[in-house]
Write a structure and sequence with these properties.
Layout: H1 2-10, H2 13-18, H3 20-37, E1 44-48, H4 54-61, E2 65-70, H5 73-81, E3 89-93, E4 107-112, H6 122-134, E5 136-148, H7 149-158, H8 163-168, E6 188-189, H9 191-198, E7 203-210, H10 219-223, H11 227-240, E8 252-259
Parallel strand pairs: 1-2, 1-4, 2-3, 4-5, 5-6
Antiparallel strand pairs: 5-8, 7-8
Length: 260
Amino acid sequence: MDYLEEYYNNYDEEGRLLSRHGQVEFLTTMKYIEECLKDISDPSIIEIGAGTGRYSVSLAKQGFRVTAVELIEHNLEVLRSKLDGSEPITAMQGNALDLSPLRDDSFDLTMLLGPMYHLYTEEAKIQALSEAVRVTKSGGHILVSYCMNEPTVIQYVFGLNKLREVMDLNMLTPDWHCISEPKDLFELVRTEDIAALDEQVPVKRVKLVATDGATNYKREYIDAMDDETFGKWMDYHFAICERQDLIGASHHTLDILRKA
């Protein structure tokens, strides 16, 4: 937790999601959140690992009932600073691995949009996923975000000429899967890793989506786009973001599940 807390105390995650390239991930995630909520009257929503509230606060300001659970106190302070008191949101400190203060079958939509980035063992990942499923109503949706392996190999290992360094540190398996520890901050997965986790909990996958697709490979180009060009980029992105042959190359993915 020390590495994680230090990172979020100093990193502008809010600024990333507000940047033009960060907007792709945000707009894509919001699109699928809206799809999950469209047939539910007065849905109850929980975001586990709410960060600075980019999603929770946005939804609460639309009038949705939201419970925002966040581990890092600094992030909670930023989240609360965005509220004027009129929003139907409860913000609380908590851990994705233990949601015992929350009852079973309580929420129509459960969002786990950050914790899987920072869990490094299969046991911890299954525990977080199990807790998310537990608090979700039968038939409700669970949205889980992941950081993907291949963009890091392409952009960091080779793109930034870090191959010798990561090999010396034994950070790659023979089949080029990155090996992460808490000090590395982010856990990286492949699509087959996500599928294996889903098999451990009572859910059915609805779809697996590339939330930023090719965007981060062309970050400077995306940030320099005018509004019309960016609109076309989003049209293109939405046209391909569910193509399974491209999913593993996205920096971030969204696993959309339904509780059995």
